[in-house]
Amino acid sequence: MTFEIVPTHDRASWLAARRQGIGASDIAGIMSISPWTTPFQVWASKVSDLPEVMDDEAMKWGRILENVILNEWIKLSEQTLVHRGPLCRNTENPTMVATPDALASDRPIEVKNSSDWSWTEPPIHYLAQVQWQLAVTGYEVGDLVVLHAGRHLEHYEIKADPEAQARMIEAATEFWGYVEANEPPPTQWEDSTIMASLWPTSTEEVAQIDPDDAFELYVAKEARDAGNQRYDAAVATIKAAMKEADTAVSEMQVIATWKTNKNGVRSFKVKGDGLVE
Fold first, then answer.
1. How many domains are there within the chain?
2. Phi, psi (degrees; rounded to nearest 5) at 266
3. Most CB atoms closer than 10 Å: which of 40, 44, 183, 273?
4. Under a CB-based contact definition with an 8 Å cutoff, are residues 104 and 136 in contact?
5. Which one of 165, 198, 231 terminates a domain?
6. Rounded to two decimals, what is the model's pTM?
7. Pairing mode, if any, of strands 108-114 and 141-148?
């Protein structure tokens, strides 16, 4: 056995302990294969005390249904359940942590609630999550149990892949260097929103920017400005053709409206759909 269970008393203590390592839900973000999380966002969750993102309606019901799915799978599989939602820490590399939905006597169990009717194979970010759980625990196989479309339970047995795990560990080691240095990893356009929360106020300081990054900023700005000018020119062409008309049509498709509101101001809108009746 290559792992230990980290005792946590509530969600706050679990979050604090998890911040000290890389979890299974972090690894896909670190490797840029997550549909929801970027490397920068994972980094921000480790170096700051940003408030936890509140569940939306889908996330809330997902959490509720995961317990139902897990209970049903335990009955169907007759697995011997050892722990529910334990925080596992690798004893050889303490920065490797994972919180599977459950631990059976010989494997981690991860539960998902999917709106898809079925999968040919699980999405890569879920495979990475289970592979990381296997790397942390040292188990040879893991269960991914999915309720598809609210009515079809499917079980995917995931075997340990040493090569995939080695790539993950390499990426995680490089990423943890950014955490220890308190320096952000490369960013993506999605990261701008969280930056405002991470650094909400400015100080009278001067930041030295890499010349290549500065050059890219100017090139991107010119491309954006050129694009805006092209758009404005296209709008002007359509407006000139419309004159007093409030609707523009091309090949039976409504492409734009230019209507006068109650305040006497004409507002132009591009329409991507809608047929003239």
1. 2
2. -80, 130
3. 40
4. no
5. 198
6. 0.79
7. parallel
